[in-house]
Amino acid sequence: MQFTPVLRAEALKVRTLRSLSGTLLAVFAVTTAFSVLAGASDTSEPDFDPLFTALSGVWPGQIAAIAFGALVVSSEYHGNGIRLSLAAVPQRGRWFAAKLTVVALPTLVVGLVTALTALVAARAVLGPAADGLTTGEQVRGVVGCGIYFALIALFAAGLTALFRSGVATLSTLIPFILIISFVVGDTAGGATAYLPDKAGQIALYQTYDGTLEPWTGLAVTALWAAAALLAGAWRLIRRDA
Predict the structure, then answer these.
(1) Would you list the DSSP string of 16-33?
(2) Residue-wise over 165-192: b if at least 16 C-beta within 10 A, else e?
(3) In angstroms, rounded to a whole number, what is the distance separating the alpha carbons of residues 25 and 36?
(4) Which residues, including other chains, have CB under 8 Å from residue 138's CB and lie 6 or more apart?
(5) Residues with Cβ < 8 Å from 17, sequence gap 6 or more?
(6) With 60 as the cut, is the pLDDT of residue 187 above it?
(7) How far apart are CA 73 and CA 109, in angstroms?
(8) What tens digit of pLDDT does each residue of 109-157 get?
(9) pTM (predicted TM-score)
(10) Rounded CA separation 108/203 (Å)
(11) CA 20 to 30 Å from 48, out of 17, 64, 87, 240?
């Protein structure tokens, strides 16, 4: 079977499952709302960064992106639906590529729209505190945010294919990002800059220190996602169904 009809079939699955549309809506709503709230906070802090403040809603919003990536893949394992999918598309690599495409593209588009909306809304609240932001910095923040959302969703999708469970993925990634990465990041030194969330979010800062820059940080996150996807593909091709 050609790739295009497989992609259409997978896109149809995403459009017909309300829970998946709901998670993408949550990416937009949560990120924008928290960015505006952050913009209304105290801007006199010594480490205040206007770009990250305007896009700081990505921190809770990424949970919805993770949920989207996990749910798109885990829906196949409900009632052994994976057997039907692979019977219809015996080329497992082609099917998995189509599945990942319908994870990455919607998340990227929603991420870009979300980042732009959050930035505009938060800047209105920040007022003069955001006047120092250049056009290049803002474009980089919006584009970097969209790419980050897509990569973190793909990371979740790969882990879900490996674990064969969305619950296992969410139980692993959410505590990692909300607790381990956040807490350990303040105590373990520079190595934590290479964690998938820390590295990717460098693109959201106006100023940044350390060995990673915005695009190299996103490249590190992409490597984490690629590793998870390769592991998931191995499980799918060698073990599943």
Answers:
(1) H-HHHHHHHHHHHHHHHH
(2) bbeebbebbbeebeeebeeeeeeeeeeb
(3) 17
(4) 51, 119
(5) 71, 75
(6) no
(7) 19
(8) 999 999 999 999 999 999 888 888 999 999 999 999 999 999 999 999 9
(9) 0.93
(10) 15
(11) 64
